[in-house]
């Protein structure tokens, strides 16, 4: 028998102008809210058109863009799809690396496997120990203590580790967690401003839904609340959502995150060795 969510989604899609497969080739989830999305996108098209005109004037046909306050402001308001490949490559630094090392990728393909390079590419997030991933989840926990203490107290009361509720946020960078348009807007800022954007998004989701999360009374309930806060109009309306991530969490400096990373990483290592760092 077909699940109720799937039947409802099919019925909504038949009466909607929104296709079941999005413009990037991905099939929408079975619980996709076609009505909310159609209402949102009819207004968002105006924003996209306005941003496309501004970006075309900014780039003026050039294949380069320099970092500046103006570019940062433009990126926070969204990069049009037609300019994303260029802008992502430039602002992330990938374009410069590629130009400084012409033909390097092809040489890797043609040569023998380089185990050292493979380990470098894995990074701490994707190594078997996942030390970097665990560290950043603990950093989020510390930031929640500072900025949303009631939620931190709830998590501690029920003995819930952050890794149980936010692992996919970090390891997938919100892909298959938030709507695709919202994810692309997050990545626009991520490539320009770095990993603090991931913490801004996470803190915004938690702070915006603080009262809802605090209704939870047990472990399964808390896990369910964290799944639900990644759905609905708040995350679908990506333009408003992106404005929120730069106001809702308040000040969040990269220096603060790096300092917390040092402490949390030391704690991870100490726990392996049977110690703990305060």
The name of the CATH superfamily of the largest domain reads: Ypt/Rab-GAP domain of gyp1p, domain 3
Cα-atom radius of gyration = 21 Å
What class do helices, strands and sheet pairing give? mainly alpha
Q: Could you list the spans in which at least 5 consecutive residues all have pLDDT below 50?
A: none
CATH architecture tag of the largest domain: Orthogonal Bundle
Look at the structure and give the mean pLDDT: 88
Instruction: Give the assembly state of these chains.
Output: single chain
N-to-C terminal Cα separation, in Å? 54 Å
Number of helices: 17
Organism: Anolis carolinensis
Pfam families: RabGAP-TBC
InterPro entries: Rab-GAP-TBC_dom (IPR000195), Rab-GAP_TBC_sf (IPR035969), Rab_GAP_TBC_domain (IPR050302)
Protein name: Growth hormone regulated TBC protein 1
Walk me through this protein's architecture.
May act as a GTPase-activating protein for Rab family protein(s). InterPro entries: Rab-GAP-TBC_dom (IPR000195), Rab-GAP_TBC_sf (IPR035969), Rab_GAP_TBC_domain (IPR050302). GO terms for molecular function: GTPase activator activity. It holds the Pfam family RabGAP-TBC. Residues 1-194 form the Rab-GAP TBC domain. By secondary structure, this protein is mainly α. It folds into two domains: 16-111, no CATH class; 131-276, Ypt/Rab-GAP domain of gyp1p, domain 3 (Cyclin A, domain 1). It has helices at residues 4-14, 34-59, 69-76, 84-92, 94-100, 104-110, 115-126, 131-147, 149-157, 163-171, 180-193, 196-208, 210-213, 219-228, 233-236, 238-245, 254-272. Helix 7 runs parallel beside helix 8 (131-147), helix 8 (131-147) crosses helix 9 (149-157) and helix 11 crosses helix 12. The longest helix has 26 residues, at 34-59. It is globular, with a radius of gyration of 21 Å. The protein starts with a helix and ends in a 6-residue tail after the last helix. The model has no long low-confidence stretch (mean pLDDT 88).
């Amino acid at each position: 028998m077909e699940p109720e969510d799937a039947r409802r989604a099919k019925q909504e899609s038949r009466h909607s102008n929104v296709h079941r497969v999005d413009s990037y080739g991905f099939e929408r989830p079975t619980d996709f809210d076609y009505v909310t999305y159609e209402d949102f996108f009819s207004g968002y098209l105006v924003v996209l058109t306005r941003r496309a005109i501004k970006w075309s004037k900014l780039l003026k046909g050039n294949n380069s863009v320099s970092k500046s306050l103006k570019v940062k402001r433009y990126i926070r308001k969204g990069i049009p799809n037609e300019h994303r490949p260029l802008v992502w490559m430039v602002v992330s630094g990938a374009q410069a690396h590629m130009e400084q090392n012409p033909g390097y990728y092809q040489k890797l393909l043609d040569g023998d496997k380089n185990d050292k390079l493979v380990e470098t590419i894995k990074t701490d997030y994707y190594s078997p120990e996942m030390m970097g991933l665990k560290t950043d989840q603990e950093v989020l926990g510390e930031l929640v203590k500072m900025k949303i203490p009631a939620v931190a107290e709830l998590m501690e009361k029920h003995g819930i580790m952050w890794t149980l509720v936010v692992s996919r946020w970090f390891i997938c960078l919100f892909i298959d967690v938030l709507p695709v348009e919202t994810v692309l807007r997050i990545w626009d800022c991520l490539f320009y401003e770095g990993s603090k954007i991931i913490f801004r998004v996470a803190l915004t989701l938690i702070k915006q839904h603080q009262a809802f999360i605090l209704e939870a009374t047990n472990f399964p309930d808390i896990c369910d609340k964290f799944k639900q806060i990644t759905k609905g109009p708040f995350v679908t309306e990506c333009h408003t959502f992106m404005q929120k991530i730069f106001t809702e969490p308040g000040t969040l400096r990269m220096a603060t995150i790096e300092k917390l990373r040092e402490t949390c990483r030391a704690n991870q290592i100490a726990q392996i060795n049977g110690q703990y760092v305060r």
